[in-house]
Each structure stands twice: as structure tokens, then as C-alpha cells.
């Protein structure tokens, strides 16, 4: 933990609705040209948009080899080349941004949608309703995905939301509720939603999932629910166990599944070991991506000193480490 910069959004096994972000064919499934924007729980999304376990772990450890070169941290992973717009620490802020990205797709007459994800806690925010209004008014190709894991920060959905039927809370925007722990259900509902969004405009998907852990390091996750509830969820709904069961039923040999699991654990362990050895970003990168043209201004730092930030083109060392 001591190695990780910023707030750790735990890499929950079930926090990303199974099956959503990466499908290549046919065209009605999500493609890499379809945009994705999400909450601060962005680690798995990064993996589905060109990221590796190594660059994800590097980012968590604040290393220069990270997805955002070690200066973004847990909640700020992006990949512009793969149309992944983050990753954002501000709850709900991805919702209007997602509507904006969908606007860009429509404006450029691209056959693509923007998948815009938010949590059940964020679903009560005012900015969501402004974004839904414009998305509906302009028939933007946006799939709004409410990742309903039933809990917010130190609280439960029933304490925070008058209605927890999040798929109905788009008023004039239609919604579907699906089991977010069922990879095939998510695939199917996403396929439908993409076609709908392209033909008619925005749609809401509420994907029912579950958060095994507390919200973050300061939330033990046990003050607003029982341990029994968590155990029952793990035993009956875990998305990975369900896929395993499906594979076994389809005749995949158990030893093949075991080998895959072993290989994946090794890949993660190796990536962690490598990431820990990687260099930290140099201090000169501090101002990168903060100002479009930082050389043209002078800044006063917290110590009252005046500094002139260096322009991005001076960061030759970036290429050396990248
Ligand atoms: C605008 C804003 N308000 C408050 C916070 C603090 N905060 C971080 S996460 C969170 C709860 C979000 O719950 P939910 O949307 O359900 O997401 P989950 O953690 O369940 O994935 C809060 C209140 C924040 N980051 N941004
Ligand atoms: Mg939640």
C-alpha cells in the first residue's frame, strides 16, 4: 500500500460489469472506435483498452512506466489511441463528458457510440440530469451505464436514493436492467444498446453488480451490511465462478481452466515485481499536461517562489523511459 500514490480504488473482482468493454466483431458489438469513459474504478477498463497488467500496476505504484506515466495514479488512467477517456476522481464528472464525446461522434458522422459509466452513488447527481437532457434532445449515441454495486462511500443505496430503480430514472430516456455479474447477459444487452443508441439516441443500462469490499481504505465495508450478505454474494453470483461453471458445462477440461488461472496469477505477480523495479517519474514532468503552453506564463508555487514551467517539448526523457 505504501507504494501506491493517491486514493486506491480497489481492483474489485466484480466492480466492472462482466463482458462490457471489449468486443471486436460483429459491428453491433462494441469496437475500439467506440469511446469509453468511466469512474475512478478504471483499472479493468484500462486492461480492455490497450493497457497491460504491467502498465496498470506501474501506474498504481507511481512509476514512469505507468499508463499515465506515473503522474495520474489509480483514478486517472487513459488511452487516447484506444478511445478510452478515463478515469476521473470527481464522482459523476464522466457523465456530461460522455455526452460530449457522443456529440463528437455524431458531429463527425461516425458510426460509433460512447459508453458512459457511473455508479449508483453518482446516479443521484444533478449534472447527470443535465447531460441526459441534452443527450435526449440531440439524440446523441450515448449508452449511459449505471454500475449499480448497491453501495456508495460508507453508505448503502437505500440510504442515498429515493428510487434505486436506476434504469427508470432517465425520464424520457429508455432503460434496461441486466445482471452485471453475467458476462453473456451484459454482452447481449450492450449489443442491443449500441444499435439502439445509433438509431435512436441515448439509452440507460443499469447493470446489477456487487462490491465485496468497502469503498476504499477508510471504509471497512461492514457497517452498513452484514458479512453474511457478502458471503452469499460471493458464493452465488461471482462472475468469474459463473464463467468457470459455464466452461465446465461446455466440456472444457478442468485442468485447462486451472492452468489458465495459474498462468494469469503468474502474469500479475510478475507484473507487480517488474513495476516495483521501474523508475519513478522525474520531477521535471510535474507540469506536463497541465497547461497547453506553459512556457508563456509564470507561476507562483506554494512556497512563494516564481517558476516558469518548461514546455512539453523539453521532456525528451519521456521517450527514453516510455
Ligand atoms: C463530486 C464528488 N463528491 C464526493 C466525492 C467523494 N466520493 C468518492 S467515491 C464516492 C461514492 C461514489 O459511489 P458510487 O457512485 O456508487 O461508486 P462506487 O464507489 O460504488 O463504485 C464519493 C461520495 C468525490 N470524489 N467527488
Ligand atoms: Mg456504488
From TrEMBL:
Keywords: Oxidoreductase, Thiamine pyrophosphate. The keyword Oxidoreductase applies. The keyword Isomerase does not apply. Its cofactor is thiamine diphosphate. It comes from the Eukaryota. Residues 31-282 form the Dehydrogenase E1 component domain. This is Dehydrogenase E1 component-domain-containing protein. The lineage of its organism: Eukaryota, Viridiplantae, Chlorophyta, core chlorophytes, Chlorophyceae.
